[in-house]
Amino acid sequence: MEVATIITSGLIAFAISCLELLYGKYKLNHNLVVKKPRYMIWYALVYGLLAILITFLILLGEITINEFSPSENPWLVSISVGLTIKSLAKISLYNFNISKKPVSIGPKLIFDYLDDFLLKKLNDDIDEQLLVIIKRVSKKLSSKGNTLTTQNQLIDEVTPTNFTLIVRASYMKEITSLKKPFDKCRYFLDKFGVKRLLMLENNLDEN
What we know:
Blueprint: H1 3-25, H2 30-35, H3 38-61, H4 74-83, H5 85-89, E1 94-98, E2 101-105, H6 107-142, H7 148-157, H8 165-177, H9 181-192, H10 194-206
Antiparallel strand pairs: 1-2
Helix pairs in contact: 1-3, 1-4, 3-4, 3-6, 6-9, 6-10, 9-10
């Protein structure tokens, strides 16, 4: 059994878990995740260690499945486990209900809890950073005597151009309906990400 194949499985699982957060769940604010990556690292590390454990057990057991021998194809096992680790972590060995609430016995029970805990912590870190930015930009947006109409026009200038007129108008309708600059900035950030909100701040600084 090659140690390199086992470690490779963990590295693949670690990398995929990081990419899932950076360019999946938090694709609009991935730069904020990078600024405080501690919980992303813990999250990815959990799946990396699971991949290492599963790969080790498969290669150690030398189980033959449909004439496929893992010991003869360690790299294939390593890569396969690394790529499919999220699915393997969601396996339920047995399901039952407690007060009409489904409970799963198996890896799913443990990893659902870990996901919930670590992702909440990660989200708290992101929200902490976003709150500072929203307050700063909303204060600038309402300064210099900007009316609600002017605020809406300034926001409209930095709205992404890859939308149809109907979609763009729909977003602007929601923004226009909000009267507080803080609410406008929070909605805008939620839909388009922190980079677009910083573009709005740059425009405000230049005016």
